[in-house]
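Table S2 (continued). Query chain:
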Amino acid sequence: MADTLQFDLVSPERRLSSVTAREVQIPGTDGDLTAMAGHVPTITTLRPGILRVVHTGGTEDFVVSGGFAEITATNVSVLAEQALPRAQVTADVHARMVAEAREAVTAAQATGDTTRVDEAAKALADIESIGLR
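Corresponding output:
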């Protein structure tokens, strides 16, 4: 259909989704964006957040920790560092993600590099904001 695009989400562990989508809402590092059929070609980095896919079967939400998205007029391909269906993000999983992000902030602070500290703090805030359903 002319108003749809192919969506693929993969992580190093597995392919999480491959569907024909109407829209894909992406947590981009430079701001959230929605990709739809006919989108201008774009490559963006991901920040931690919720990636939402709207398709004929409904809506799917995935928690991503970072990665890249390649968008064309007919496709969205997301290569995530880590990704899980949102329903699989339990309190224990979320707590582990927050703990890892806090460790990254501590490691960044030890370098004295303020840019790294700022980036790690932003990633921590993004992960904390994911929360639970």
